[in-house]
């Protein structure tokens, strides 16, 4: 039975027409789901009971189950969601001092890319999420935290390995008749799948692109991120040039800073060389511990990278991680409790 949550309005209108139902009924149902965040046909009170019963026979309206929540002192909330098949994923709500409210979405159960500095990769890969499962994360969190301002596809999994479902969810989030979410307030982060970056460029969307770089040295990046063996830096760079030229948009390069690994002077010089001539900005991210031997770079090393990049006329900022104490920060999602939680938990 198809899940109605992932249907576009156009698809729903066509299917309602085939069922002998007027188009305005499709708009009513769509508004209940994507404006009022209602996930029960019985609660769609402006629909005749006969129609509600008929919809139950034609569609499911299944969402995720909140199995566990953990709240950090900084206001970050990590959600453990149970899927219909018993699998689990994590998503994160982040509120910053400027009142920005962001939901970090997962796109896969686990991840196949096995980046050394990311806890999710240690889980291995199970399956892709459906578009409905991606959408449901945002809507269930929005029910508890209204007025979400930003969506980032930076949770568990590689979004571009689930390209069709990710783009379907984006289309529904941003549709005028749906959630009407601004495209520029959505960011998709990839480990650098060059072929998909080019495909994404052809979408002509205003959705932002972020690329997890972490080293501008092929040998080192290949050790940290096995995906680099398939898409080495020259290929990645070409895809980013194509993206910027085709979409007329800047790309964000994410650089997780690891003490004594990728934060040396030689690493900085290679990063500057990679960025030169590319329409980009660099987000420097202090490594968030999850049990690996890696250590976060010293503050002095991070500051030196910022100064070096800015001195080379490359836009660079230090991205402050939130939720590290509860295992909710960048690279920490791993379906596990964290010892010594600095926060509250609930079921």
From TrEMBL:
Positions with a binding annotation for S-adenosyl-L-methionine: 157-158, 189, 212-214, 288
Gene Ontology biological-process entries: rRNA base methylation; tRNA methylation
Pfam families named in the record: Radical_SAM, RlmN_N
Cofactor: binding comment: Binds 1 [4Fe-4S] cluster. The cluster is coordinated with 3 cysteines and an exchangeable S-adenosyl-L-methionine.
UniProt keyword list: 4Fe-4S, Cytoplasm, Disulfide bond, Iron, Iron-sulfur, Metal-binding, Methyltransferase, rRNA processing, S-adenosyl-L-methionine, Transferase, tRNA processing
GO cellular component, one term: cytoplasm
Domain of life, per lineage: Bacteria
Subcellular location field: Cytoplasm
Active site (record annotation): 90, 330
GO molecular function terms noted in the UniProt entry: 4 iron, 4 sulfur cluster binding; metal ion binding; rRNA (adenine(2503)-C2-)-methyltransferase activity; rRNA binding; tRNA (adenine(37)-C2)-methyltransferase activity; tRNA binding
Cofactor list: [4Fe-4S] cluster
Keyword ATP-binding among record annotations: no
EC category: transferase
Role noted for this protein: Specifically methylates position 2 of adenine 2503 in 23S rRNA and position 2 of adenine 37 in tRNAs.
NCBIfam families, alphabetized: rRNA_mod_RlmN
PANTHER family: 23S RRNA METHYLTRANSFERASE (PTHR30544), RADICAL SAM CORE DOMAIN-CONTAINING PROTEIN (PTHR30544:SF5)
HAMAP family per UniProt: RNA_methyltr_RlmN
More info: Reaction proceeds by a ping-pong mechanism involving intermediate methylation of a conserved cysteine residue.
Family that this chain belongs to: Belongs to the radical SAM superfamily. RlmN family.
Record's protein name: Probable dual-specificity RNA methyltransferase RlmN
Organism: candidate division WOR-1 bacterium RIFCSPHIGHO2_01_FULL_53_15
Gene: rlmN
């Amino acid at each position: 039975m198809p899940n109605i949550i992932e249907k576009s309005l156009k698809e729903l209108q066509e299917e309602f027409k085939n069922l002998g139902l007027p188009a305005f009924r499709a708009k009513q149902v769509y508004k209940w789901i994507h404006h009022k965040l209602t996930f029960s046909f019985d609660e769609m009170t402006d629909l005749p009971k006969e129609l509600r019963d008929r919809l139950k026979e034609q569609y499911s309206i299944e969402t995720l189950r909140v199995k566990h929540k953990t709240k950090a002192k900084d206001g970050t909330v990590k959600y453990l969601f149970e899927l219909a098949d018993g699998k689990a994923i994590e998503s994160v709500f982040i509120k910053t001092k400027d009142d920005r409210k962001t939901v970090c979405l997962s796109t896969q159960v686990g991840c196949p890319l096995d980046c050394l500095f990311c806890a999710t990769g240690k889980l291995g890969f199970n399956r892709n999420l459906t578009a409905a499962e991606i959408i449901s994360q945002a809507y269930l969190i929005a029910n508890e935290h209204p007025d979400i301002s930003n969506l980032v596809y930076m949770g568990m999994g590689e979004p571009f390995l689930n390209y069709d479902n990710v783009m379907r969810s984006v289309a529904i989030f941003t549709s005028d008749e749906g959630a009407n979410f601004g495209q520029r307030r959505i960011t998709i982060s990839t480990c650098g799948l060059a072929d998909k970056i080019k495909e994404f460029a052809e979408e002509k969307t205003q959705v932002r692109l972020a690329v997890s770089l972490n080293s501008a040295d092929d040998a080192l990046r290949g050790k940290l991120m096995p995906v680099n063996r398939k898409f080495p830096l020259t290929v990645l760079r070409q895809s980013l040039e194509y993206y910027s030229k085709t979409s007329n948009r800047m790309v964000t390069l994410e650089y997780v800073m690891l003490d004594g690994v990728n934060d040396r002077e030689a690493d900085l010089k290679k990063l500057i060389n990679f960025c030169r001539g590319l329409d980009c900005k660099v987000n420097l991210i202090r490594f968030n511990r999850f049990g690996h031997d890696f250590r976060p770079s010293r503050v002095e090393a991070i500051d030196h990278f910022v100064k070096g990049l800015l001195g080379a006329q490359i836009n660079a900022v230090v991205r402050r991680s939130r939720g590290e104490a509860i295992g909710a920060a960048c690279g920490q999602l791993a379906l596990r409790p964290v010892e010594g939680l600095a926060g509250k938990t609930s079921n």
